[in-house]
Amino acid sequence: MAKAMRGGAVSESAPIYYEEMSKVAGKENDKQSITLIATDDAYNFGDYITLRSRTGHKPQVLTDRGAIISERMAGMMDAKVGDTITVTDSSGTERKVRVDGITEMHIGHFMFMTSGGYKHVFGEQYQSNAYMVRLKNHETSNVESRSAKLIKLDGAKGIVQNTTSKKQVATIVDLPDQIMEVLILAAELLAVVILYNLTNLNVSERIRELPTIKVLGGLGVLVYRRLKTVDMLGALKSVE
After folding, report:
1. C-beta separation of 123 from 91 below 8 A
2. Reduced to 3 DSSP states, what percent helix, strand and coil does the chain have, rounded to the nearest 5?
3. CB 53 within 8 A of CB 69
4. Hey, which residues does 12 pair with through a beta bridge?
5. Could you write out the DSSP letters of every residue in 144-180?
6. Residues 166, 160 contacting (CB under 8 angstroms)
7. pLDDT tens, 165-195?
8. How far apart are the first and last CA of the chain?
9. Structure confidence by residue, pLDDT tens digits, 57-115
10. Taking CA 36 as the corner, what is the angle to CA 35 and CA 39, rounded to the nearest 5 degrees?
């Protein structure tokens, strides 16, 4: 496994400890999944995952005192820096963790620790069980292709891709634009219908008000001249 993490299509890799934890929280008070990632190389961890605050993009530094949690997880647990939170590990044991920082992440619940922080919380020696991998080619098709090859290696139980998270973020970001386009189109159609109805109403009113003009042959010119003036004034008013 370690050999496959070096060279070839892999740009760089780093061993980590990976575990799926949980917490009963949220508005529905249901079970939320939390991803724990611990590293023994906090200095180079930023090459793989950027830890920073949302406001001011202040770097969040990993220490042995506690963990850095994602912003979404902090919102779910109503946690602030310096608070102590309780999470449940994969064996069902509750663990108390001090919040050392909150990083800008809006998809999923994540908790990042150093090997020293892991030993302090779990009372066990740190031992990596996974790898973080950066590929030379970041194209989605290449990531999926390489993932299919890596999962076939002996000892590989699963692969977590960030392409899925990226697709979720892209969908969330694009959704308001699509909704806005539909609303603009609906507003344009509504404006056309309203102007059409108002024009017909205006013509009908002018015909009833000026019956004598019909005899003089000036009905069409007079009516549409007035309509043009009304439309211009309406357009100027809408711009304001």
Report:
1. no
2. 45, 25, 30
3. no
4. 134
5. HHHHHHHTTSTT------HHHHHHHHHHHHHHHHHHH
6. no
7. 666 666 766 777 778 888 888 888 888 788 7
8. 67
9. 899 999 998 999 999 899 889 899 999 999 999 888 999 999 999 999 877 899 999 99
10. 140
Contact 17, 130 (CB under 8 A): yes
Tens digit of pLDDT for each residue in 130-164?
888 887 776 666 677 766 777 676 666 677 766 66
Q: What distances in angstroms separate CA 206 from CA 1, 107, 145, 169, 179, one per listed residue?
A: 86, 61, 72, 56, 40
**Beta strands at 94-103 and 84-88: parallel, antiparallel or unpaired:** antiparallel
Cβ contact 36:105 at 8 Å: no
Predicted TM-score (pTM) of the model is 0.66
Q: Token match 């139980």: residue?
A: 157
Residue spans of beta strands (DSSP E) within the chain: 10-25, 30-39, 67-70, 84-88, 94-103, 110-114, 130-135
Q: Residue 196 corresponds to which tokens in the numbers above?
A: 């059409």
Write down the residue that tokens 């050392």 correspond to: 100
Please tell me the distance from the alpha carbon of residue 158 to that of residue 22, in angstroms, as a whole number: 19
Tokens of 235: 């357009």
